[in-house]
Amino acid sequence: MIYLVLAFLWLCVALTAFLLPRFNPDAPPWTIPGSNISIGWLALAFLIYNLARWWTSRATRQQDRRLLRPISRPTIGDEPPDPRVEIRAGPPK
């Protein structure tokens, strides 16, 4: 769940970084210092990373759930008694 929350956060940062210059051209650009690369690209990379982590943790959780399923075992009385078995009263002689 935390990975989805972080992915949503990075999506908001990326949208803000890409759309802010469109709405307010006079605002300072959101770029990586020393370059002309938008912070939005970095936020998109983190978004993809968090979605991948969420997807793999989800798949792992499903496998764990399958391993924890109870094993169905036959209960006593489900099968007819075996005629080859002799039950005697008392200890063997």
Helix content: 40-55%
Q: What's the gyration radius in Å?
A: 31 Å
In terms of quaternary structure, what is this?
A: single chain
Residue fraction in strands: under 5%
Query: How many distinct beta strands?
Result: 0
Structural class of the secondary structure composition? Answer: mainly alpha
Low-pLDDT residue spans: none
How would you sum up the global shape? Answer: rod-shaped
Number of distinct helices? 2
Q: pLDDT average, as an integer?
A: 82
| Order of secondary-structure elements | HH
Q: Largest sheet, if any?
A: none
First and last CA, distance: 67 Å
Task: Characterize the structure shown.
The structure is a single chain. This protein is an all-alpha fold and 93 residues long. It has a domain of 61 residues. Helices cover 55% and strands 0% of the residues. The protein is built from two helices and no strands. Helix 1 packs antiparallel against helix 2. It is rod-shaped, with a radius of gyration of 31 Å. The model has no long low-confidence stretch (mean pLDDT 82).
Summarize the structure.
The chain is mainly α and 93 residues long. It contains 2 helices and no strands. The protein has a domain at 2-62.
